[in-house]
Amino acid sequence: MKTIDQKQLYEYVENNISLFHQRRLDYVQSKVDLPKILKQKNPYLFRAKNVLTAQDLIKGFFDALLSSQEETLFGDFMEGLAIFVCDRVHGAKKSKLTGVDLEFEKDGAMYIVEIKAGWNWGNSSQLKQLRINFANAKKLLRANGIKKVVAVNGCCFGTDNKPDKGDYLKLCGRRFWELISNDTNLYKEIIEPIGHEAKQKNEEFLENYAQIINKLTLEFSQNFCTDGKINWEKLVEYNSGFEKITKK
């Protein structure tokens, strides 16, 4: 039974994890626009949390934006890694079917997979669309003579102890990585190359992060603080008040 070559795995992860760190740094450096940050987050929440200093408020606003973006960027990396592994082991190909990320053959069946970073995704409408996409894909493949088609929602981390959803399988964490790699331990083995040079990359990131927080804090203090205190009324008015409508 074929498995992933460890040297190839390490090379892919080390090359592409650097791209994740660079994109994260690029995002931080591009989000130095205080007006945009103040418009996007909820000032009432931070007032309820009794945030008292300009720096804590700015960090809270900025970190909320950054966390969401990091999840997206790292999700892209993990999905790319999964596709790479499956290609090397099963000769998978990027699917042209709507809502399907890759296709590959295994144990006499055609697997069609939609990849998600984590297990806890999707509202009822998104799950309904997932089922529709899988049903349409199965119909097309069977029309082309493929008798056994297995639809999989593959999640790169997490667990789901009831993987059989009736019309598709939801395979999370170990189950997913084992499906695409034939290796029961791959989900643990990838943690080592992912951490390669993480300390160095994060030090560079944190240096730029601190510089941006200091800059934004100064700008915020000059515009939204009165006698050293956050002027919440002014901040809320800026965030949620009427804007003048200009006619073209």
Structure, explained:
With 248 residues, the protein is of the alpha/beta class. It has one domain. The protein is 59% helix and 14% strand. The chain contains 10 helices and 7 strands. The strands form 2 sheets. It has a 5-stranded mixed β-sheet with strand order 1-2-3-4-5, with helices on both faces. A hairpin with a 7-residue loop joins strand 1 and strand 2. Helix 1 runs antiparallel to helix 4. The longest helix has 37 residues. It is elongated.
Please describe the structure with a list of short key phrases separated by commas or semicolons.
single chain; 248 residues; alpha/beta; five-stranded mixed beta sheet; two-stranded antiparallel sheet; 10 helices; 14% strand; elongated
